[in-house]
């Protein structure tokens, strides 16, 4: 399974999301590769991804995708990230 | 340049601004750039690039209730990787659907994405403790800020 976390610059908030998504997946006992990238590169980076993690503001910028787009409100809330990932990959 | 940012609990005084006055979110982001510049991490003009990112993509940098993580891509206006913390006397709205108003702004400066990763991962460790953001907002001394940032929650 491949999961991509995206933000505007690909270095700040997406990295927080990547770290916490990795933790959430450990809790769920799900093996996945989680990467972080910027929204401009998402077409390539997420071409074969099952899940895209991002914030509401960036959803419109993602463009057409076959991946499930999961919106995270609080990037530091492991409960929220775990619950939403469980639905997306379950 | 080979330079690692100082550990979070050793953030220099110049990289911390407490109870700062910002009338709006742009001013709040500029305060973060001023703190980054005061600590030697970036030029003050980096603030305009951090603002431009929000103007382009919206207030997604407000990643948790009360907290904005201002940043932009690496560039020639960044001299060393580092971060700055600004707390606001009066919280400001960034226009975020869930996490407004913002009372703590983190400014991030990155020279290369690779160097950036370690300190950002540390931030995730610190802020996964939900008491840290309100704690920072209420901090009255820079030592208090360093103490909060040095408290790492075990995953």
TrEMBL record, chain A:
Q: Where is each PTS EIIB type-2 domain found? A: 1-90
* Keywords (A to Z) from UniProt: Sugar transport, Transferase, Transport
What Pfam families does UniProt report for this protein, alphabetically? PTS_IIB
Segments traversing the membrane: none
Question: Would the keyword Transferase be found if you checked this record's keyword annotation?
Answer: yes
SUPFAM superfamilies cross-referenced by the UniProt entry: PTS system IIB component-like
Q: Which PROSITE patterns match?
A: PTS_EIIB_TYPE_2 (PS51099)
Protein name according to UniProt: PTS sugar transporter subunit IIB
Protein's organism: Herbiconiux daphne
Automatic annotation (TrEMBL), chain B:
The cross-references to SUPFAM superfamilies, in alphabetical order and at most eight, read: Phoshotransferase/anion transport protein
The protein's matches in InterPro entries, at most eight in alphabetical order, are given as:
Ascorbate-PTS_EIIA_comp, PTrfase/Anion_transptr, PTS_EIIA_type-2_dom
Superkingdom classification of source: Bacteria
User: Could you tell me where this protein is found in the cell?
Assistant: Cytoplasm
Residues covered by the PTS EIIA type-2 domain: 9-152
Question: Pfam families from the entry?
Answer: PTS_EIIA_2 (PF00359)
Query: Which key words are in the record?
Result: Cytoplasm, Kinase, Phosphoprotein, Phosphotransferase system, Sugar transport, Transferase, Transport
Q: What does this protein do?
A: The phosphoenolpyruvate-dependent sugar phosphotransferase system (sugar PTS), a major carbohydrate active transport system, catalyzes the phosphorylation of incoming sugar substrates concomitantly with their translocation across the cell membrane. The enzyme II UlaABC PTS system is involved in ascorbate transport.
PANTHER family per the UniProt record, alphabetical: ASCORBATE-SPECIFIC PTS SYSTEM EIIA COMPONENT (PTHR36203)
Quote the protein name from its UniProt record.
Answer: Ascorbate-specific PTS system EIIA component
């Amino acid at each position: 399974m491949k999961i991509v976390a995206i933000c505007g610059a690909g270095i700040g908030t997406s990295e927080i999301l990547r770290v916490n998504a990795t933790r959430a997946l450990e809790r769920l006992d799900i093996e996945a590769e989680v990467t972080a990238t910027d929204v401009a590169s998402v077409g390539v980076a997420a071409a074969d991804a099952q899940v895209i993690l991002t914030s509401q503001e960036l959803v419109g910028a993602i463009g057409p995708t076959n991946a499930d787009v999961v919106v995270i409100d609080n990037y530091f809330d492991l409960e929220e990230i775990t619950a939403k990932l469980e639905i997306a990959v379950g | 340049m080979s330079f690692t940012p100082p550990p979070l609990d050793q953030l220099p005084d110049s990289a911390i601004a407490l109870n700062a006055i910002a009338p709006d979110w742009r001013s709040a982001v500029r305060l973060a750039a001023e703190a980054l510049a005061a600590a030697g991490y970036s030029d003050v003009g980096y603030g305009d690039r951090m603002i431009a990112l929000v103007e382009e993509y919206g207030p997604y940098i407000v990643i948790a209730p009360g907290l904005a993580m201002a940043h932009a891509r690496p560039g020639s206006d960044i001299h060393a990787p580092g971060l700055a913390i600004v707390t606001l006397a009066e919280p400001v709205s960034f226009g975020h659907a869930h996490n407004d108003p913002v009372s703590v702004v983190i400014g991030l400066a990155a020279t290369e994405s690779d160097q950036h990763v370690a300190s950002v991962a540390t931030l995730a460790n610190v802020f996964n403790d939900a008491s840290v953001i309100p704690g920072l907002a209420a901090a009255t001394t820079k030592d208090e800020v360093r103490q909060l940032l040095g408290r790492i929650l075990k995953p």
